[in-house]
Amino acid sequence: MTTATLTPVAEYLSTSYRPDREFLDGVISERNVGEWDHSRLQMLIARFLSIREEQWGILVVPEQRVQVKPTRYRIPDVCVVIGPHTGEQILTKPPFLCIEILSKDDRMSEMQERIDDYLNFGVASVWVFDPRKQRAFVFTKGGMTEPIDRILHAGEIIVPLAELFA
Fold it and tell me: Which stretches of 27-166 are assigned E, i.e. beta strand?
């Protein structure tokens, strides 16, 4: 039986990782990133949202550390906050929307744990994209849905999947 070496929060926060890694109750956790489908869709989503920041009163940031609990830090592929930047380098208040893009090696059990962390922290909506199947799912405290009309909604934010997967 192997045991993981636990890392103190202060050490995690003072260390730079490439790519950045999540911190889950003392365990440094690598993220699945870097393949074309994932990277391209991440850029398209961030661009689609960022050009509408002023219109929707949002700020869009990719790969931003979010402290979901005192000993848990997640890094959504893209997150959206409402209103002006607070000056925080690591988000300690829930963003409005967290977006995750599935990589071929992602496991649904791990993705569900990530979704639960966001929702329990107070994130209003979590969008999960599957770039290979060109599908997206919306998770809220009320459950999971797949938009039949292929248009994602979160408050005033409206994203037609056809524009992202064109």
Answer: 27-29, 58-62, 66-69, 72-74, 78-82, 97-101, 125-130, 135-140, 143-145, 151-154, 157-160
